[in-house]
What does this fold into?
Amino acid sequence: MAVLPDLVDDRIMWPVLQRLQECLCAELARAGGPELCYCGHMVGDIMPLDLMQCGPGGCGGVAWIRPMQAFSSSQFPTPDEAPSCVAVLAMPIEIGVARCYPHMDVKKRMDPQAMFEASRLYMSDMQAMRRAVKCCLADESFQGSYAMGTWEPLEAQGGVSGGTWTVTIRPEV
It folds into this structure.
């Protein structure tokens, strides 16, 4: 896609999304896990799992933020029953990290040490996601409200797993 120089940017949600993405990538780097193939924005309802390259010479995972919905919310974080011109928008955002999942050996046995290290990495990623939200949305540059949802693991498919965390934001206008 070409750069859109004459685009009228959203000045309410976009700066928060951009800041949150920067904080996520910084917190994951500070956490010391394997280097990521991709850390950035996603659109639509997909996760960037196909960007991963598990195996020798591959990268250490992917991380993303993506808007999930938007709704009017006079009583945050509850959606209004009828949209209003004066109510502020709220937006649930998915924050995710996926990593390569340990493989079984030829005898269909899981290496306990590999599973231990994967579990340790997933918990480190979960806390980095939490810090990204708490630190980004707690500083003075964010004026508004946020509600942390739940962290949920990704189903281990195709040698990839990880987790997502949902946070709902409502910037002040």
